[in-house]
Amino acid sequence: MTTTETVQPPAAVKTSGINQVLQDTMIIAWRNIRGGMRVPDTQIYMFIQPIMFVVLFAYVFGGAIPVDGVNYREYLMAGIFAQTMAFAVAPASVGLADDMHKGLIDRFRSLPMARSGVIAGRVVSDLCSQFIVLVIMMVCGLIVGWRVNNGVLPFLGGVGLMLLFAFAMLWVGAFIGLSVGNPQVAASAGLIWLFPVVFLSNAFVPPSTMPTIVQNMAEWNPISAIVAAARDLFGNESIIVSDAWPMQHPVPAALIWCALIIVIFAPLAVRKYKAAASK
Amino acid sequence: MNAIIAEGLVKTFGSGEKAVRAVDGVDLVVPEGTVLGLLGPNGAGKTTTVRMLTSLLPLDGGRAEVAGHDVATDPQAVRASIGLSGQYAAVDENLTGRENLWMFGRLYQLSSRQAKKRAEELLEQFALTDAADRPSKTYSGGMRRRLDLAGSLIVHPKVLFLDEPTTGLDPASRLDLWDVIRERVSGGATIMLTTQYLEEADALADRIVVIDQGRIIAEGTADELKAKVGGERIEVVVHDPEALSRAVDVLQRGSDGQCVVDEHTRRLTVPTATGSKGLIQVIRDLDEQNIEIDDIALRRPTLDDVFLELTGHHPEEEKAAEDEQAVAAEGGAK
Ligand SMILES: Nc1ncnc2c1ncn2[C@@H]1O[C@H](COP(=O)(O)OP(=O)(O)O)[C@@H](O)[C@H]1O
Ligand SMILES: [Mg+2]
């Protein structure tokens, strides 16, 4: 260990306000992405899983479930996209639980940084990775026969909706991760309830084929609204034979659902963060 | 000027029957440029005290000022003047050493260039340059501790909090870390250091505060505390019971204190003021008198002795549990 005294560094500068919030958020986002890319789990999550889902669903289910007069493979794609966006819960919950578990949140809180930086940075980095995942899935989709039949603006609207949904689900993930505070528990607590929710929707099967009670649940499932809206915006067949309001007005319904999830879970997550941090 | 002032600190966890008063009316004053050792067994309230003083925990009672800023009303100013190295090294294990230090620098609001430069200097100073571009999860426990400590020195903080900086380290890394801490002191920093080892507080601290169950039970310099528990002792186990009384004479000759005799174990204990010199003299004298011995040692008072003396109970079992916990936490962090 050398004992030579080095150049006096500047004392910490006190910046404040929105600039500091943005800057600290970007630094935390950078470290999430930079560090995350070194973890095999993240690489699989971002690059292998999306391709696997698209190809598996397209070739395994795509031909097996006949729906009259519909290109089922095309029908499936929006469902797979939405399901994968919902999985944003996983990286957010595991990431924050991990930071808590390892004492990093305490460390960050002892620094003169913006208080909101840790959660905001997580949201930004995970939104970036969800965007990359979405692009990969769409390219794969195009390769296996998915088509956009509705022009550029609605398509961009569809992409925007997918990201908005991912954003909403990130807050759910943040809430779960900060509540459990242990990465292993967070990994399962983040996803276990998501599978039934996704399967009880129009993501893979038209609800009209389900028993009445299940059918009602599926029609009012937020996932169904998101998926139906995406199908509309991408110009894919959506086979809606339902009078339920969300199925008749999927785009507004999807936006309302996303807003609702954010309004409920963002404050909950922030509250959990403050509570967890002052323990 | 005092760098740390705490008056009547109180922290209670939980409520009702299960409430734990983790810190129960602690007063501390640490003059600028000095080192305070906060000594206590596991669960004494050391970490809780540090977390309150570093603005991580709201105070339930009392007030505290660090580097001239009130912890409760101006926490951001406190954070800009302190460095904290917590009980378990908190670095991002997926980032390299260099990246970790750059990130901490940026979060101290340095510019990217300043942060880079500072990271270089600290890597050099902490002998981490060779490992700088490896993810820190590949580091040994000692390297991780050094990186964590480097992260708390980014802005040459006026006040440095080190929570059990050497717990779980091998002896060589421990000595290395002591050097770094001494260097900070000579650079003018004020340090509050918590530890479970009297030896460590003795080596580093100007003043020691002993806490147990959230309360201060003693304070003073290391020498004052040791004087309280009786300083060094020579312990001899005599081979032949017949030789006991002659051995007592030998021991008594070199000491002002009273020789304690345990006939059953043939163990004699006598206080000594002359340390290892006294020990050598005793060995010579015993040899001269042809007194055969099974064992002889110079015993320094340990945290155990301090505790036994001050509280009447051993911290021993608790310490074992703590060490296990530390190992488990290290393992869990992998
Ligand atoms: N977040 C917490 N919730 C409940 N009890 C706590 C919490 N943190 C510490 N304690 C309790 O407070 C006491 C003091 O703990 P701590 O300050 O960690 O001691 P030390 O650092 O000296 O080992 C212990 O009894 C511990 O169990
Ligand atoms: Mg502790």
TrEMBL record, chain B:
Give yes or no: UniProt keyword Oxidoreductase.
Answer: no
Q: What is its main location?
A: membrane
Domain spans labelled ABC transporter: 4-238
Q: Single Gene Ontology BP term?
A: doxorubicin transport
> By its UniProt entry, which SUPFAM superfamilies does this protein fall under?
P-loop containing nucleoside triphosphate hydrolases
PROSITE patterns associated with the record = ABC_TRANSPORTER_1 (PS00211), ABC_TRANSPORTER_2 (PS50893)
Identify the GO cellular component terms for this protein.
Answer: plasma membrane
**Could you tell me the membrane topology recorded for this protein?**
Peripheral membrane protein
Q: Where in the cell is it found?
A: Cell membrane
Q: Where is this region: Disordered?
A: 315-334
A GO MF label: ATP binding
Arranged from A to Z, the UniProt key words for this protein are: Antibiotic resistance, ATP-binding, Cell membrane, Membrane, Nucleotide-binding, Translocase, Transport
Q: Which InterPro entries match?
A: AAA+_ATPase (IPR003593), ABC_transporter-like_ATP-bd (IPR003439), ABC_transporter-like_CS (IPR017871), ABC_transporter_ATP-binding (IPR050763), DrrA (IPR005894), DrrA1/2-like_C (IPR025302), P-loop_NTPase (IPR027417)
Q: Which family does it belong to?
A: Belongs to the ABC transporter superfamily. Drug exporter-1 (DrugE1) (TC 3.A.1.105) family.
Q: What is this protein called?
A: ATP-binding cassette domain-containing protein
**What is the originating organism of this protein?**
Phytoactinopolyspora alkaliphila
